[in-house]
UniProtKB/TrEMBL annotation:
Keyword Nucleotide-binding: yes
Species of the source: Oceanospirillum sediminis
UniProt-recorded Gene Ontology molecular function terms: ATP binding; ATP hydrolysis activity; transmembrane transporter activity
Full protein name: ABC transporter ATP-binding protein
SUPFAM superfamilies listed in its UniProt record: MOP-like, P-loop containing nucleoside triphosphate hydrolases
Domain ABC transporter per the UniProt entry, residue ranges: 5-237
Protein's UniProt keywords contain ATP-binding: yes
One GO-annotated biological process of the protein: quaternary ammonium group transport
């Protein structure tokens, strides 16, 4: 598989203010990635820079091996063959759906344009609505049209900036998977910006987690969850809590919830202070468990109930119990920790410092 997009150590600034620093990642043709991170971490800035709306201060961006952005190169957005889909759909209100999609196809003949428009509308399952105006469509339908319009000029890649954030949660889920199917069927790469982790996991082959303008980890969704590179990623991706402990015999940690044994040896000395990541699925209800936690909060979620539990030290952990377990706030619950895959952070080592 060939590399389509190569982002190499880029720094982005607004005036003299550094927004993102030393960002590198690459994307193969047909792969979909997602930039995930809290508000203000620089996701949109990166997307705008890839699109060519903003320059890079240092580093470079290449598409198919050619530099499109560097401190002394800035290929115009319209020459990059990159499509964009925005949060607010950005359709032309006075043009029909047909005209909206045909808008960027000026170089095609009338017949070619007509064929391309229907091909794109078939792709997004919207052919019946070809003569409507944007205000006659639902939000989800408008976003499908926006996707069809972005795909119509046959871009090499598509950038999606929080495309589903104006839609309700069911529709978001559905449309996210639909967009993934469409991009995969056309072998078009996509870069999606979101702060919704579920969306990122469902849509992307690779996810880049950003914080304060720095890439914290670029990895598959599976690895982000199971092998977070640092405490920030561990906290931000998936529900999880860090509790302190001390390493024993390279693979065990002594904590207030007992000795937890992992499935690998850690290279640190006995007694090293560590943080242990506990995800909800690591903590199970066990009437004969040795730890008593107190229910701090709970949310009924159908087949399971999500409990927030206070440990004797006051630290919080979370767990999913079968919804037949009915505990009220303040009730004691006996629990046991069953973490077969131990994620530890050495408190004496600063992983990937995140100051800009
Ligand atoms: N035109 C601008 N001039 C100066 N600073 C800007 C400009 N645009 C964005 N910023 C700043 O750059 C930082 C990153 O903004 P950006 O929009 O890239 O973040 P984001 O991760 O996309 O956030 P959100 O999820 O809230 O959209 C923020 O601190 C923001 O205030």
């Amino acid at each position: 598989m060939s590399t389509l997009l190569q982002v190499d150590a880029i720094e982005c600034r607004y005036d003299q203010l550094v927004i993102t620093r030393d960002i590198s990642f690459s994307l193969n043709q047909g792969d979909i990635c997602c930039l995930l991170g809290p508000s203000g971490c620089g996701k949109t800035t990166l997307l705008r820079t890839i699109a060519g709306f903003d320059p890079v201060y240092s580093g470079s961006i290449s598409l198919n091996g050619s530099i499109i952005s560097s401190p002394d190169t800035l290929i115009e957005p319209e020459e990059r063959r990159i499509g964009m889909v925005f949060q607010d759909y950005a359709l032309f209100p006075h043009l029909t759906i047909r005209e909206n999609i045909a808008f960027g196809l000026r170089k095609l003949s009338k017949q070619e344009k007509g064929e391309r428009v229907t091909e794109m509308l078939d792709l997004v399952n919207m052919r019946d609505l070809i003569d409507r105006y944007p205000h006659e469509l639902s939000g989800g339908q408008q976003q499908r049209v926006a996707l069809a319009r972005a795909l119509a000029p046959r871009p090499q890649m598509i950038l999606l900036d929080e495309p589903f954030s104006n839609l309700d949660s069911e529709l978001r889920k559905h449309l996210g998977l639909e967009v993934r199917r469409i991009l995969k069927s056309q072998n078009i790469s996509g870069v999606l910006v979101t702060h919704d982790q579920t969306e990122a996991f469902a849509m992307a082959d690779y996810v880049g987690v950003l914080n304060q303008g720095r890439m914290q980890q670029w990895d598959t969704p599976y690895n982000l969850y199971h092998e977070p590179a640092n405490q920030f990623v561990a906290n931000f991706v998936g529900q999880g809590y860090l509790i302190p402990g001390q390493l024993q015999d390279h693979n065990k940690v002594s904590t207030e919830v007992g000795i937890i044994e992992g499935n690998r040896a850690y290279p640190w000395a006995d007694g090293t202070d560590v943080d242990v990541l506990l995800r909800p699925d690591d903590i199970i209800e066990n009437p004969s468990g040795s730890i008593t936690a107190i229910v701090d909060q709970y949310t009924f979620a159908g087949s399971a109930t999500h409990y927030r539990l206070r440990l004797p030290s006051g630290l919080i952990v979370e767990s999913m119990f079968n919804s037949h377990a009915e505990y009220d706030i303040g009730d004691p619950v006996r629990i046991e920790v069953k973490a077969d895959h131990l994620i530890l952070f050495n408190n004496n080592v600063k992983d990937n410092p995140v100051s800009v």
